[in-house]
């Protein structure tokens, strides 16, 4: 099954197109982002059937790229197979330029988000492709509504999502403009 989504940045200067594919044992997300800070990038995220990230590729227009793999339990490696110890324990992934990555912990944890849940993310800043650990928290407030907290910077937002856990509204940052 394939579905396409689009988000626009709240200021109207950025746009993202995402193709989400559900296959037998893998979920593949391929997105293209034209950012509001004069950058463009493409990404591909592969997850297992339980929404645990297994690989990520990010390519920034102009040539910079990043490839990482994970065992799905918090051990990450770079494209040369070297362990990325600074990401140990990071199960989920957050790419700064897209609201899609908020879907990953929402889908992976499902009903487990009834209470506030603190997580460690492998956070990728676009366009620099800096990668670091980022502590975050998610709390299900109501059906299809979650509180997102970026604990290291004191940011908080209430996210509205659809039945598939994809963001519809991310106040002050993104609003979905197309869905399947």
Automatic annotation (TrEMBL):
Highest taxon of source: Bacteria
Protein name listed in UniProt: Glycolipid-binding domain-containing protein
